[in-house]
Specification:
The chain is 43% helix and 20% strand. It contains nine helices and 13 strands. The N and C termini lie far apart (86 Å).
């Protein structure tokens, strides 16, 4: 065999494996490069998503240039409820101070009625229920008048009728009903809340205990109702409502005690006032981002509606909502 032929075979013998090896290595290097790039790209996307989620959780963000809010109410809170159910406190003042809550009590009364009563059951107004004192603007119910349970809820939540609260509680037995109010408060984690009646009225003896809570606990109750029994807030959105007795006769037009209805989108709320409690107000409405809800509470206020309007205006301007 000639030298040139031997050289040819040597080149073939040694070159082909080398060429194949180089190609395999190059392919593996290319696969590694693209796999690594894809992994890096996925990591960047995940990091960006995490950053976006973190930024979203921070919204609304407080504007540094805005002044702090000052309200005359002794205690106040604003809680944002996001569409995923998470909560964020946007304003607070003495949120754990125990104070009388007046007719804010009726939120718990309404919750127990929703949970335990047949809406179509008829309630006959007793002489005791007819005598119960009402806030200004709420007319007394008449002895022996009959209403469906569902209709008494409108009395309860729109005009804050104390006779309706008593009549509903008395269906179960008032003491048993109040005991259930306190049991439910404990179940909901309202550790600083206590009830002695279903109305929120001050006791005749001013030295006796009255219904009390904190704005923090009231906010928890309001949020729980929003999530589980939203029809309570739906009823409280009515500024006026025609109510009928059980026999279908028009009884009267109820007018809400809440002066702020209609001032904010989807606004609802519950008022309260007694000499001992002062002005109380629980408000829930659609937040400026149009996706969340704001729950605002004020207790022991000389101007509950003015304090609440001030809070709502401040929240709108003090935070970046978009």
């Amino acid at each position: 065999m000639s030298k040139s032929l031997r050289l040819f075979f040597i080149i073939i013998f040694l070159g082909l494996p080398l060429w194949w090896g180089i190609n395999v290595f190059a392919q593996k290097l290319e696969d590694f490069f693209y796999t690594n790039v894809a992994a890096q790209e996925e990591e960047v996307l995940n990091q960006n998503a995490a950053i976006e989620k973190q930024l979203e959780s921070m919204k609304p963000s407080r504007k540094e240039e805005t002044d702090a809010l000052e309200v005359g109410a002794r205690s106040a809170i604003s809680v944002l409820i996001k569409k995923d159910g998470t909560e964020k406190v946007l304003f607070q003042k003495n949120i754990q101070e125990k104070l009388p809550i007046a007719s804010i009590t009726k939120l718990m009364t309404a919750l127990l009625v929703m949970r335990n009563y047949n809406f179509e059951e008829t309630v006959e107004i007793s002489s005791e229920a007819a005598k119960v004192e009402n806030e200004q603007g709420s007319g007394n119910l008449r002895v022996a008048e009959k209403f469906f349970v569902k209709d008494l809820l409108y009395f309860l939540l729109i005009e804050s009728n104390n006779g309706a609260a008593f009549a509903l509680a008395d269906m179960m037995d008032e003491k048993e009903f109040v005991d259930l109010m306190n049991i439910t408060a404990a179940e909901l984690g309202l550790e600083d809340t206590f009830f002695v009646n279903p109305t929120g009225l001050d006791p005749e003896n001013q030295q006796d205990l009255t219904n009390y809570s904190t704005v923090e606990d009231v906010a928890k109750l309001a949020i729980y109702i929003l999530k589980t029994e939203p029809s309570i807030w739906d009823i409280a959105r009515f500024s006026e409502f025609d109510v009928y007795s059980a026999d279908g006769i028009l009884f009267r037009k109820l007018k809400s005690t809440n002066e702020l209805l209609g001032t904010m989108p989807d606004l609802s709320g519950k008022t309260g006032w007694t000499l001992r409690a002062g002005g109380c107000l629980a408000i829930i409405y659609l937040a400026p981002d149009k996706q969340s809800y704001l729950v605002n509470i004020v207790l022991s206020s000389e101007d509950r509606f003015g304090d609440m309007e001030k809070m709502m205006d401040w929240l709108n301007g003090a935070y970046q909502w978009q």
